[in-house]
Amino acid sequence: MKEEITKRIRVYGIVQGVGFRPTVSRHATKNGIRGSVCNKGPYVEIFAQGTQEQVEGFLDDLENHPPKRAAILKINVELEENPVSYECFTIIESEKTKGEIFVSPDIAICEECKEEMFHPKDRRYLHPFINCTCCGPRLTILDSLPYDRERTSMKEFPMCPDCAEEYYSPETRRYDAQPVCCNECGPEVYLIGRKERGRDAIIYTRKTIQSGGIVAIKGIGGFHLCCDASNEETVSRLRTLKRRPAKPFAVMAADMDVVRRECEVSEIQEKVLTGHQKPILLLEKKEGGIMAPSVAPDNPKIGVMLPYAPVQLLLFQYDDGLVMPDCLVMTSGNTSGAPICHNDEEALAELSGFCDCMLSHDRKIRIRADDSVMDYYKGEPYMIRRSRGYAPLPFMVSNPWEGQVLAVGGELKNTFCIGVDGRFYPSPYVGDLEDLRTVNALKETITRLETLLEVEPSIAVCDLHPRYNSTAIAEELGLPVKKVQHHYAHILSCMAENDCAEPVIGVSFDGTGYGTDGTVWGGEILAADYDDFQRLGSIEPFLQIGGDVSAKEGWRIAVSLIYGYTKDQEKTRQIAQSLGLCSETECKVQLTMAERKINAITSTSAGRLFDGVSAILGIRRCSTFEGEASMTLEFVAEAYEKDKGNKEAFSKVLKEEEIPFLKETQEERLLFNTGALVEHIVKARMEGEDVGYLAYYFHAQLARQIVAACVRIREENGRNKVALSGGVFQNLLLLRLTDELLEAEKFEVLRHSMIPPNDGGIAVGQAVYGMQQLYKRKQHPEGGE
User: Fold this and answer.
1) Which residues of 404-420 are buried (b: 16+ CB within 10 A; e: fewer)?
2) How far is CA 179 from CA 133, 140, 155, 577, 596, in A?
3) Are 189 and 128 contacting, i.e. CB atoms less than 8 angstroms apart?
């Protein structure tokens, strides 16, 4: 008889809620292994007993054939010196252990469940909550770890005998699947405020959509507002009701055939659309599509996703004989600025005025999870909003950090981040904290995620801005608070995503951030590392007049920019009148406020610079949603480049009379020559130059100014890595021009991919800063920091 060995194996990663233990049991049976597998919470512990050959075969299967949705981050294997003798292989009840924790995000419905759901003879035929070990809700139903049914919102639904048999049988697809249920024992759909339940509720909802109505639908992470995306009248009505005149709506397509009909889609993008995360992808519209113009007005792209919850599939396909639209508007169910609604009370209070019926269900959502939104840059994902399907998977950083921190994030596009040693767990998307409901949602989600991850942070980290609600929340936690400058946090988030501990030149461009000097920053060049930063450059300062309204009314910024270089009120009025920026009265008021410094603050905001140029070119005088004027400016520039071709477009820029990239100044920092750039654009516009070309010219020249500043800084400090971050770098034209020009100068460029460049990503940077402060305190306990 061959000598036997016993090995203790610990597997770390996404190993809960993905059918890991059943898969281990099957691998053990295949290889003749005796022993046990147990879910410890932070990891899965396995004892494998057998011959050397059997154990090696088992380990090979474990590493190379894990469950579809598992993500193994590391495996520790130790030889047991005095093992117990095992008679068979068993799955042991979950136990609680301290350690590294990885919570699975929610997983889109798998192909096998989809096939069963539409098979008339299957007992889960048309079941709105079908799931298995490979798919279904995870984070959004979870109360605590380990991931077992009694610690989820499914504990309220006892399994029927048939489901229990599948749950306990290793041979089935639902072995140990915590949300397992069927039409007999699972949750039920119903219409809020009406008598229809189950099948009747689904049919009524489908009829409402088909007849041009608007419905609210509770999914995995919250409610959506839904209507026929091909019905212009209905989509326009939804815009009117939601007071959302132009911001694009996301669309859910029935299948990939519909996506291909409506959009340009690459093979890589198709894999993401059909994968198990199913984010919203921003895709180029095709000519000849049937979607209503109001879905994404004046926008060459459209946000598209495929159904990821069973109930969403049932909107498209059911056995009631109705012929349904094959693309539906599927936008977050909330009022402007509020978090996504996640229960009936919120839906009644906020959504009843927007829709004709509300389809809900009685499975409680523990944590809200809005849809993730993703763009693509050079064939790689470029995250715009990281939420469902991705949160709270951690980012790993190699630095030898120890400790626990809570970073509360920014004021807009809020997410928070929990840091544990070298792991950083970004939360699902929360929203804009200007709304008290979002503030409460943030507090609630922080508490729940801290519980799930079993953390007790020793410090809180927040933005430098003294009046942000996020700052107030951090200060209410009863923890020591560290404040980090907004644009520095952006750069730290980019460094962390790229696991870069070396000093970098940080280019941080966004709409607004509180500067260390009390002014508005937003177009910054920083020398940054994990310890600190230095402001080395910025765009040329201008007066931002009118407070918050100036972020929506780009014409105000345009007048200020023009006055900045003319220094003459009469000339400014003449130019403003010639360009149609505003009325004479409005211009006079604006200039008076500038002269007397009334509600006027010094600003280097790149976002507002884009808004001002958009107004000067007659593209958008005002914005109805954040970034509208800047985004439309980008689209006009991209259309010009597409028409002329990359090389021809850029060569025309090179032939222009050269404007110095950097301004000669007595300032301590470098200044981009943005004032002269604006002056050139105004003059060319008044002389009748093509608007498309001038929009492109602005992007190209700004990119060249960024690169010139980086070259100058490298000459002084030798730094060769440049990190690009901030919401303005959602602009793929500016990103590409800057990226390629930097690479031509032999810089190593760090970009975002899975962490958003916008304020949805700064919590990661804040958490990294907090962790470095803890590290420094431990290294130098007597000197504090």
Assistant:
1) bbbbbbbbbbbbbbbbb
2) 9, 11, 9, 64, 64
3) yes
Average pLDDT over residues 307-334: 97
Secondary structure (DSSP) of 4-19: EEEEEEEEEEE-SSSS
Phi, psi dihedrals of residue 406, rounded to the nearest 5°: -120, 120
Burial grade of 578 (CB within 10 A; 0-12, 13-18, 19 or more): exposed
Q: What is the pLDDT of residues 423-441, one digit of tens each?
A: 999 999 999 999 999 999 9
**Ranges of H-type helices in 548-596:** 554-566, 569-579, 584-596
Instruction: Identify the three-state secondary structure at position 627.
Output: coil
Residue 132 and residue 164: Cα distance in Å, rounded?
Answer: 13
Inter-CA distances, 602 with 547, 564, 568, Å: 11, 11, 18
Report the distance separating Cα 291 and Cα 327, nearest Å.
8
Q: Which two tokens mark 601?
A: 């603050």
Q: Which amino acid is at 90?
A: T
Q: What is the pLDDT of residues 54-96, one digit of tens each?
A: 999 999 999 888 887 777 877 899 999 888 899 999 888 766 5
DSSP H or E run through 736: helix 732-744
Q: How far is residue 497's CA from residue 492's CA, in Å, rounded to a whole number?
A: 9
Statement: the pTM of the whole predicted model exceeds 0.85? yes
For residue 637, what are its two tokens?
């520039």
Q: Which amino acid appears at position 110 of this protein?
A: C
Distance of CA 518 to the CA centre of its chain: 29
Q: Three-class SS string for 302-363? A: EEEECCCCHHHHHHHCCCCCCCCCCEEEEEECCCCCCCCCCCHHHHHHHCCCCCCEEEEECC
